Every structure is written in C-alpha cells, then in structure tokens.
Amino acid sequence: MTAIPLTHILVLSTLLFFIGVFGFLTRRNLIAMLMGLELMLNSVNINFIAFNKYLYPEQIEGLGFTIFIVAIAAAEAAVAIAIIINLFRTTHHIDAEQADSLKY
After folding, report:
1. Sequence spans of domains, the chain
2. CA 64/CA 76 separation, integer angstroms
3. Closest Cα partner for 94 from 29, 37, 34?
4. What is the pLDDT of residue 20?
5. Looking at 56-60, 72-76, 95-99, which range is the least confident one?
6. Which of 29, 36, 49, 43 is nearest to 77 (CA)?
7. Around Cβ 85, how many Cβ atoms within 10 Å?
8. According to the model, what pLDDT value does residue 15 have?
9. Residues 80-97: what's their mean pLDDT?
10. DSSP result, the chain
11. Residue 104 scores a pLDDT above 80
C-alpha cells in the first residue's frame, strides 16, 4: 500500500483553509460565516495529523491536538448558534451587516 505524499495533504489543507477564508469574508449570512470558520479549523486538524504521521509516526501528539481542536470547535459552534438564534429572535434575520445596527 502506498502512502499519500505530504505535499498532497498540505495542498488539500491549504485549499480547504482558503475556501474557508473566502467563505468567511464574502458571506453576509452568519451561518455561512460559521461554516467557513469550521472549514478553517478542519484544515488545521488535517495539518496536525499529517505532520504527526510523517514526522513522528510513533507518537500521538498531533491526534491529541486534533481532538482538543474538535472539542473547542464544538463548543464554539454551540455558542455561535445560540448567538445566531438570539439575533434571529430579536431581528428576524441573520444578516451580519444588519446585525451591527442593534442597540443594546
């Protein structure tokens, strides 16, 4: 069985990261912005696992970092969705440009 070269994995991770950046910066919908942020976090997870596999195959630090990031991303998504739901209940839209006009 042949191993996938590290450069192919890094190209995939880079593409995912920049697709996430593009989605985060160009979308006005808060859900789409959250999806872009999750894509960026997942590309970092791919980097952690790839470098762990190729540099230190007998150790599992990259996997530990990945599990930590997945837990943080789940907590971040839960808080972000709660904020988005609260915004929708208040303004009946989830447009990021209209959200800054709220007066608290």
Report:
1. 6-99
2. 18
3. 29
4. 95
5. 95-99
6. 36
7. 11
8. 97
9. 83
10. -PPPPHHHHHHHHHHHHHHHHHHHHH--BHHHHHHHHHHHHHHHHHHHHHHHHHH-TT--HHHHHHHHHHHHHHHHHHHHHHHHHHHHHHHS--BHHHHTT---
11. no
What class is the 6-99 domain?
A: mainly alpha
Q: How far apart are CA 27 and CA 53, in angstroms?
A: 35
- For residue 51, give the nearest of 64, 66, 62 by alpha carbon: 62
**Tokens in use for 39?**
């894509």
Structure tokens, 91: 């303004």
Q: What confidence category does residue 103 fall into, taking pLDDT thresholds of 50, 70 and 90?
A: low
Task: For residue 65, give both structure tokens.
Answer: 């970092």
